[in-house]
Amino acid sequence: MDYICVPVFKILIVQMIPYQTLIKIDPNNKKPVYEQIATVFFNLINNGTLPPGTKLPSSRTLAEMLKFHRNTIVCAYEELINQGWIISKNKSGYYVNSDISIAKFTNENGAESRFPTKLPIPVKFYVPQVVDHKREENDIFLDDGLPDPRIAPYKALLRELRTLSDRDYHLKKANYGTSVKSSSLAVALGSHLANSRGISPTISNIFITNGAQMGIYLVGKALINPGDVYLVASPGYGIANQAFIENGAKIIQVPIDNNGIDVDTVANICKRENVKGVYVIPHHHYPTTVTLSPDRRIKLISLAEEYDFVIIEDDYDYDFHYSSAPHLPMASYNHHGRVIYIGSISKCFSPSLRLGFVVGPNDLIDAVKHIRKMIDIRGDTLMEHAVAALFENGEIERHLRKSNKLYKERRDYMCGQIDLHLKNFVSYQAPSGGMAIWIQFFKEYDVSQVFLLLKRYGISFNHHIIFNQNEDMNHVRLGFASLNFPEISRCINAIRKSCIVLSNK
Asked: CATH 1.10.10.10: does it fit domain 2-96?
């Protein structure tokens, strides 16, 4: 009898939840209403208000409660189903996914704090070593997933720079550099992160960098003591791994599958090693483009609390998604200050615009500010003000809408060309977002040999797009965003010809 009464009682309690009060729609928010509703449910599930297994109101009932069209509620529920937060049972209704276990934390005062004043682990500084990479040039260059600078709103940026340079007040502020505690770009970025990703840091939690890679390096330098164990994905982002190693870390590689980094392996390593940090790219993992599932995100945060380590979340291309709304970053979860969030502004504009950011607890931000001054006394204040203006006047948002549409078309076109010309040589999965496709060559076609032959067709590339470090890997991470249709056709045809040459040897 007890077994029957407990779930019934839970359902009755949930039916009493005042959804009309909890679900607030912001008319000024440019996100669709169904996405706003889905985000509210995400927060209710994430903070434990709606525990796993909870039955949700029917779409018709919730639509009547909220005074919305039923289709709006259906779209919100479908989005939550796609992201794994809820499930639909035939002839029974919608339920919070029972496989999701919500991370719980204790705080000295019982309050939730995503970015508290203190980081849970000590902050130290060490001098890094620089690693340089040589880049080849030719008439067509294959990258690992970069935006197309030809569509970047440079005219708007130059217009804002011209406006700033005409005012003595702004020119005088160019001398302040990184001594300023906050900047207009940090303010604009904070608003952008809140509206697009559910992250609401204070200005003191944001630090602007010269690209996301600088952010990774500065965070590593601030945190790592010699010999500290940091976990990274395999295959993974080699430049980040090198930054951690140069700062004294001992890195241990964790395998990746179709659901992201294997958190069970992370747990096993934590049982035998004193892990200090885990570096992850959960949205579109580099290089494989897979997305870390919601249940693994929650488990990883729980492990961080249990084993006292931090998570460095690299979310370099969050703004580019084509199939559905993206999973919210782990930095938007209840993580008790254990998630350090790193992102790129360059990815949504142009690689030549070297701007990124770090979001974290106050003591970490103070540390990276101090370290930044050792290598770059003064940031480009005028450029930061100009980019901030592009955020404020909507230019960045318009550009993101335009580039998302264009990059989706280019992704689809490259996939079509691969299907047409390379089906006998490769296999792949179309990515749900990002700017690159992870392609596996059949074992009889060595990817290094294939790409070396591309030079005869006037195509060059950086060798770091090739992944064949072991017998299980024969892959390339092929960027599509920076190539137009004729360039994509030429590249895929060149790869086909190279494969045929190898076949005839």
From this structure: yes
Look at residue 439 and tell me whether its pLDDT is greater than 80: yes
Tell me how far apart the alpha carbons of residues 419 and 249 are, in angstroms, rounded to a whole number. 42
Q: Rounded to 5 degrees, what angle do the CA atoms 277, 362, 297 make?
A: 40
Short-list 467, 465, 489, 469, CA closest to 479: 465
CA 460, chain centre distance (Å):
28
Q: Exposure string (b/e) for 135-171, b if CB count within 10 Å is 16 or more?
A: eeeeebbbbbbbbbeebbbeebbeebbeebeeeeebe
Contact 187/210 with Cβ under 8 angstroms?
no
Rounded CA gap, 199 and 191, in Å?
9
Name the pLDDT band for 498 (thresholds 50, 70, 90).
very high
Fold held by 398-503? Aspartate Aminotransferase, domain 1 (3.90.1150)
Query: What sign has the CA pseudo-torsion 236, 353, 339, 50?
Result: negative
Residue type for position 265: T
CB 256 within 8 A of CB 234: yes
- Taking the alpha carbons of 199, 205, 211, 212 in that order, is the dihedral positive or negative? negative
Kindly report the three-state secondary structure assignment for every residue of 222-271.
HHCCCCCEEEEEECCCHHHHHHHHHCCCEEEEEEEECCEECHHHHHHHHH
Domains of the chain, residue spans:
2-96, 208-318+329-377, 398-503
Which amino acid belongs to residue 138?
N
pTM of the model: 0.78
Q: At 436, which helix (H) or strand (E)?
A: strand 436-441
Peptide bond connecting 287 to the previous residue in cis, omega within 30 degrees of 0: yes
Distance CA 227, CA 218 (A): 17
Q: Which of 270, 221, 169, 146 is nearest to 372 (CA)?
A: 221
**pLDDT above 90 as % of the chain:** 51
What number of residues does the chain have? 505
Please say whether the dihedral angle defined by the alpha carbons of residues 194, 278, 42 and 73, taken in this order, is positive or negative.
positive
Residue 285 and residue 259 in contact, taking contact as beta carbons nearer than 8 Å? no
Sheet with strand 206-209: strands edge to edge: 206-209, 356-359, 339-344, 310-314, 275-280, 229-234, 250-257, 260-261
Please write the tens of the pLDDT for every residue from 37-82: 888 888 888 877 888 888 888 888 888 888 889 898 889 888 888 8
| Equal CATH topology for 2-96 and 398-503 | no
Pick the CATH number of 208-318+329-377 from 3.40.640.10, 3.30.70.270, 3.10.129.10, 3.30.980.10: 3.40.640.10
Q: DSSP class of residue 57?
A: P
Chain centroid offset of residue 77 CA: 23
Is the pLDDT at 14 greater than 60? The verdict is no
Q: Assign 349 to helix, strand or coil.
A: coil
Task: Write out the two tokens for 498.
Answer: 């190279």
CA–CA distance, 310 with 115 (Å, rounded to integer): 12
